[in-house]
């Protein structure tokens, strides 16, 4: 899988990333635009799918709250589910009676902890507010920390693995060394 870690907010004026987050190919835009975990996570999925030449469109599904992702009839319901973090996976948390949360795994550590990129619902829209984009550190037991402090009462549900997760990372082809014909010809010419 081709993967570029995101540690900064997407920018609407950046032509390479704007379509994923700030256009109607993202079903959460404009009604539930960032800051909002669902709009951000869906945009990040589109961005990663594009890097890997996969067309992801979720048809005939409900575009509900993050805590419903992966449930029957909701976004990600056809994705493989698991309990192991993988780079590019969608981490899904739920909170009884609340909207829940989704985030994208950006890095997995040797001890099983991982780092996620996030956005969180907040109005009025303010691109300078911390809700717009933030990073979280998550323990192997799926406890979320933001800036070193435990964040939220969410209960971990599962990871969703979009189709780009299973794509092997392309390996650069080794260039064959060319036979130095010019040097060989000169050496041969100098002999005779």
Overview of this structure, please?
There is one protein chain. By secondary structure, the protein is an alpha+beta fold. The chain has one domain (18-191): endopeptidase fold (from Nostoc punctiforme), CATH 3.90.1720.10. The protein has three helices and eight strands. An eight-stranded antiparallel β-sheet has the order 1-8-2-3-4-5-6-7, with helices on one face. The longest helix is centred in the N-terminal third of the chain and has 15 residues, at 37-51. The relative contact order is 0.18.
Layout of SSEs?
Blueprint (H helix, E strand, L loop, with lengths): L17 H4 L15 H15 L28 E3 L7 E5 L6 E8 L5 E5 L15 E5 L5 E3 L2 E2 L4 E7 L19 H11 L1
Antiparallel strand pairs: 1-8, 2-3, 2-8, 3-4, 4-5, 5-6, 6-7
CATH class: Alpha Beta
Based on the structure, what is the oligomeric state of the protein chains? single chain
Q: What value does the Rg take, in angstroms?
A: 22 Å
The name of the CATH topology is: endopeptidase fold (from Nostoc punctiforme)
Overall outline? globular
Number of strands: 8
Q: Could you tell me the strand content as a percent range?
A: 15-25%
Largest sheet: 8 strands, antiparallel
Number of helices: 3
Q: Helical proportion? A: 10-25%
Helix and strand succession? HHEEEEEEEEH
N- and C-termini, Cα separation: 55 Å
Query: What is the averaged pLDDT score?
Result: 87
């Amino acid at each position: 899988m081709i993967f570029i870690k995101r540690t900064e907010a997407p920018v609407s004026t950046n032509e390479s990333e704007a379509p994923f987050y700030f256009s109607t190919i993202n079903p959460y835009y404009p009604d539930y635009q960032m800051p909002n975990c669902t709009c951000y996570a869906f945009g990040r999925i589109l961005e990663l799918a594009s890097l890997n030449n996969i067309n992801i469109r979720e048809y005939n599904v409900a575009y509900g709250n993050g805590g419903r992702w992966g449930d029957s009839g909701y976004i990600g319901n056809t994705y493989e589910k698991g309990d192991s973090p993988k780079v590019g996976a969608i981490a899904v948390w739920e909170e009884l009676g609340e909207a829940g949360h989704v985030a994208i795994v950006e890095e997995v550590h040797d001890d099983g902890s991982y780092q996620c990129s996030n956005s969180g619902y907040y109005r009025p829209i303010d691109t300078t507010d911390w809700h717009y984009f933030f990073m979280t550190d998550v323990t192997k037991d799926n406890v979320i920390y933001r800036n070193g402090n435990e964040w939220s009462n969410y209960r971990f549900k599962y990871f969703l693995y979009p189709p780009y997760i299973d794509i092997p990372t392309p390996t650069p082809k080794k260039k064959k060394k060319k036979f130095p014909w010019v040097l060989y010809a000169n050496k041969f010419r100098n002999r005779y």
